[in-house]
Write a structure and sequence with these properties.
The chain has an 8-stranded antiparallel beta sheet with strand order 22-21-20-19-18-17-16-23, with helices on one face. Strands 5-4-3-15-14-13-12 form a 7-stranded antiparallel beta sheet, sandwiched between helices. A two-stranded parallel ribbon has the order 1-2. Helix 3 packs parallel to helix 6, helix 3 crosses helix 7 and helix 15 packs across helix 18. The protein contains 18 helices and 23 strands. It is of the alpha+beta class. Strand 21 and strand 22 form a beta hairpin. The longest helix has 31 residues.
Amino acid sequence: MKLKSMIGALSAVLILAGGAHAQAPQETRPTKTASAAAAAPPAAPATTPALTKADLDSWLDGYLPYALASADIAGAVVVVVKDGQVLTEKGYGYADVKSKRPIDPKATLFRPGSVSKLFTWTAVMQQVEAGKIDLDGDVNQYLDFKIPAYGGKPVTMRDLMTHTAGFAETIKHLFPGDTKVLLPLDKFISVWTPNRIFPPGEVPAYSNYGAALAGYIVQRTSGEPFDQYVAKHIFAPLEMNHSSFSQPLQPNLLAGMASGYLRASGPPQNYELVGPAPAGSLATTGDDVSRFMIAHLNNGQYGSVRILQDATARQMHAPQKQYVPPLNGMALGFYHEDRNGHVIVGHGGDTVAFHSDLHLLLNDGVGFFISMNSAGKGGLVQNVRETLLSSFMDRYYPAPEAPLPTAATAKAHAAMMQGVYWSSRRVDTGFLRVLNLLGQMKVAANKDGTLVVSNLKDDAGTPFVWREVGPFVWKDASGKHTLAAVVKDGKVTGFGEDDLAAIMVFQPVPFAASSAWNVPLLIGMCGVLLAMLALWPVQALVRRRYGQSFPLSGRTAMLYRAVRVAGLLDLLALAGYVGIAQAASTKIYLFDDALDIWLRLLQLVCLLGVIGAGLSVWNAVRVWTEAGRSWWAKTSVTGIMLALLAFVWFVVSLQLVSPGLNY
C-alpha cells in the first residue's frame, strides 16, 4: 500500500518520484483483479527458511512469471546480493515483446528512473570528501545563478539530499519528446527556479529539481560534465560497463536497451528522455546495479576499490530527521524504509514505462533490486513490486506478531484528525494547480474511534481502517501499515504514511483551496452554464414556433448575448485544459515549450471569460433595476452571474491565467 506513484494524478506526470514514485503525489491504488490476486506469492512458511540461492530462485520462479503475465507486464530483472556477492540475478519475460528477446541481467539495460538519484547523491558525497562541497553551506556558493533564500534561510546541500529545500513540484521539461528540445543541464536548472513553498529544512517535499540542482553542483565543483563525472568516478571503479547517464544513449548500449511499454500487449514506447538528468536519466543492467549495491553495503568498498570512505558511507546511510515520528525519515539521499525490525535504506523510481526499486538491508548485508519495463494494466506494476518486497521480508526476515492495542485517546484523536488534506509535494505554479484540487484526501472518523483515509486503500480498492495504537499513531488491521500525525498547539498540522513520510507529508488544506466546497462549486458552475447554453437555442426555436420576436433590444439584447458567449468561452477554456491534461497523461512529453502557444490561447479565452463575468454583473444590475422584469429573468440572470463569477475564482485560484508559462 503506497501512494508513491501518485503523483498518478501527478505520476504519469510526477513520474520520477522515488516513490518519485512519483513520486506523483493524490491517487488511489489500482484495484486488484482476480487474475492479479491469484498471482500472490506463496504464503510465508511456518519456519523461516535461510536466504539461499536455491530457495530464493524457487520462490521468485513461483511468483514473478505469473504476476507479470497477469498484470500485462513485458518483463523484469531481479538481482539480490548477499555478503558481498551476487546471490541471484534473473530475467523474466521479454526485453522486447515483438522479437521475444529475453532479458539478460548482465546485458539488458533498464531505465530505473529515480534510483538514478542514488548515484547523484553518491557523487555529491565524493565531492564532500574532497572538501569541495559543504553539506550545510549555502548552495549559492557553487552556482552561477542565485537560489533566493526563504524566510532568511538559504538552501543547503543537506536540504537537497533530504528533499527539504521547500521547492514546489515542476512538470515542464520533465520528459522532453526528443533530443532537439532536451535542455542541457545548466539551462534546465537556471531557466526557472520553482516556487518555494516551505522554509528549508522543515517539510519533506520530494523534488526532482532539487536532485538535478545537486547534479549541476557536482558538475561545477568537479569541472566535469555530470554524466562524465559519474562514468569516471562511479561506473569505472565499479566496472559498471553497461551504465550511462548520457542522453541520447550511446549506440553500443542502446542495442541492449529493453523496450518500454504501457502494457505488454500494446506498442513499445520511444526511448524516454529525462529533462533533470541527475534525477533520473540512468540506463543500466541488473548486474551493474549489483556492484553499486555491494559497494554501499560494504560502506563504499567494492573489491579492492572504494567509491566512498567508510565514515562517509555510514554518514550517508544514517537517519537525518524523522519528520513524522515514529515513521521512517530520510538519510542523505536514501530514504529509510525500516521494517520487521531491520534497517533498510533504498529508493524507488518510475518513468512512464519503467518501474524500479532498490533496497539495502544494511545490517544483514543484503541488497534487492527489481526493474520492470511496463506499467501494466491499471498500474498493477505497483502491486507487483510492493508485494514482492513485503513478501520477501516476511519470508526471510519475518517480524514476530504482536497484538494491536487500542489507545484510550482513540475517539478524541480521531476527531482531531478529521478534515481534508493535500500532499506537501505539489504544483504551485500554473494550470496544473488543478491537480492539488482533485488530489485531496479526506480523513473521516468512525464512531468507534477508528479512521478512514479516502486515498489509502488495499489491493481490492477498499479503504483501510486505522486503529490508534499509541498517541497519534495508527495501524491498519494487518499491523503492517502505519499512520502518524504531527500535533502542534493542540492541532494536527500534518500526518504521514509509513511508505511516504520520508519524502512527503499530508497537510490540512486551507479553506480557500479545499475541495470540500471548490469541487461542488465547479460542478455547479458547469451545470448552470451548460443549462444556459442548452436553453438558448431552445428559446429561439420556441419563439420561432409561435411567431414571437426576440423581446430584447439595444444594449439589453447585447448584454444578453454577450453573457451567453462568455459562458460558452468559459466551458471551452475548461475543456481545453482538460484536453491538454488528458493528452499529456499518456504523452507526458507534451509538457514542453511547444505547448506554450496553446496555453496562451486558452489564457486569452479565459480573459475573455473574465470580461464576460463583468458584463454579467452589469446585466444583472440592469435586470433587477428595470421595471416589469419577471421573476424568472431575475433568478436566471443571478444564477448565470454567479456561475461566471465562479469561473473568475477558478481562473485566479488555479492560475489558469499567469504571466509566465512555467509549471
